[in-house]
Specification:
Number of strands: 4
Family: Belongs to the bacterial flagellin family.
Pfam families: Flagellin_C
Subcellular location: Bacterial flagellum
Order of helices and strands: EEHEEHHHH
GO molecular function: structural molecule activity
Keywords: Bacterial flagellum
Largest sheet: 2 strands, antiparallel
Length: about 150
């Protein structure tokens, strides 16, 4: 008879402001709480022990092999879940890196501004605007009657 001495807690890692991902599975859920073909629950280690005892005694393991298969399905399911969580963490890491790169580019635009160049461009644009406004005012007063005089 095997006894689980670990804790039943699961830690979660915060990978973004609004997303957490479990970083592990409990040993109890992986190895100890295995459904049997008879509808009960048994741990993987007792199942393997009972199969070994049956084989040593020269008898057929019977439904114990089905229970072992269910235990392996549980382990594989846990492994798949861990892989999915790892993929989610890697995806979030890429999103975080993209966000950081975008923020650094925006910060660079603000901090690395060449003020002399910006003031020169602003002054040129302001002069062009004033010239366009003066031309508009002169053309606005003209009409066909002004040309006939």
């Amino acid at each position: 008879m095997y006894v689980f001495n670990g804790d039943m807690g699961r830690r979660h890692i915060q990978v973004s402001a609004d997303r957490t991902i479990a970083d592990s599975d409990t040993g109890f859920s992986v190895f100890m709480d295995i459904q049997t073909s008879g509808g009960g629950a048994r741990n993987l280690f007792d199942t393997v022990d009972q199969i070994a005892d049956a084989l040593e005694a020269g008898s057929a393991p019977g439904t114990l092999l089905d229970d072992l298969d269910l235990a392996m399905q549980n382990v594989l399911g846990t492994r798949a879940s861990a892989g999915a969580r790892l993929n989610a963490v890697e995806e979030q890491e890429l999103l975080n890196e993209s966000f950081i790169l975008s923020m650094e580019a925006n910060r660079s635009k603000v901090q690395d501004l060449d003020y002399a160049e910006a003031l020169t461009r602003f002054s040129q644009q302001e002069t062009a605007l004033q010239a366009a406004q003066q031309v508009f005012l002169r053309l606005e007063g003209l009409s066909l009657f002004n040309l006939m005089r």
